[in-house]
Design brief:
About 7% of the residues have low confidence. The chain has a 4-stranded antiparallel sheet with strand order 4-5-7-6, covered by helices on one side. Strands 1-3-2 form a 3-stranded antiparallel sheet. It has 7 helices and 7 strands. The longest helix has 21 residues. The protein folds into 2 domains: 54 residues, no CATH class; 113 residues, no CATH class. The chain is α+β, with helices and mostly antiparallel strands.
Length: 209
């Protein structure tokens, strides 16, 4: 990249999906971001555009222009991983399943692009910086059911420990299923007991090797 992106391109970058980096904009805007090395076009249909590591760095740098919404299709909602603490019952329909699958595939592509060895079986830097969202996406993509709105399911929460999240589930079998799902997704998880409540939970962290 030889110059900073224009204000219009910066707005497209800022509006990228926070999990996958998927972009929405006009064909000309997306092509300009590709030329500047800030985005790439996925080789598989539907050939969506995603931020490159350089694009993610631009997004994390405070902009010098007032934030405005980027041009987007009417149905282009921002994907959010289900942590289990949402007030409404989780959407379990086919539309949600497609969104989760797309988000997970985008995250695997981000792993391939940003891990030094192009590995997709090990979490990347974005996941280490967004532990709760990354763990929740890994669980939902593996078919685990998030809690919410009074329904039983997993809950992912922050912990004081660096690079670790706590995962709660309804039963011991549910907790073991969550541990297995996380381990298949490149995380390591151990089962612990809260001293005061005696409640069992997982302490999970992204695997480094």
């Amino acid at each position: 990249m030889t110059r900073p992106p224009t204000a219009a391109l910066r707005r497209v970058i800022d509006a990228a999906d926070p999990v996958t980096g998927r972009l929405r904009g006009t064909p000309a805007q997306l092509a300009a971001l590709v030329r500047q090395g800030l985005a790439f076009r996925h080789p598989r249909p539907p050939h969506d555009h995603f931020l490159t590591p350089a694009g993610h760095r631009i997004r994390e740098t405070p902009a010098c222009v007032p934030p405005e919404p980027a041009p987007a299709a009417p149905d282009s909602g921002v994907f959010a991983a289900r942590t289990g603490d949402e007030e409404k019952p989780p959407d379990r329909g086919p539309g949600r399943a497609r969104e989760v699958h797309s988000a997970w595939q985008g995250l695997l592509e981000l792993r391939r692009m940003t891990n030094p060895d192009a590995s997709t079986d090990r979490p990347c830097g974005w996941e280490r910086a967004h532990l709760v969202q990354a763990a929740a996406l890994a669980l939902e993509a593996a078919g685990q059911r998030p809690a919410g709105g009074g329904e039983e399911g997993y809950r992912v929460r922050e912990t004081p420990q660096p690079e670790a999240v706590a995962v709660y589930a309804g039963t011991a079998d549910d907790l073991r299923a969550c541990a297995s799902a996380l381990e298949r997704s490149g995380w390591q998880a151990g089962e612990y007991t809260e001293p005061r409540t005696r409640r069992r939970y997982l302490l999970a962290s992204p695997r480094r090797v």
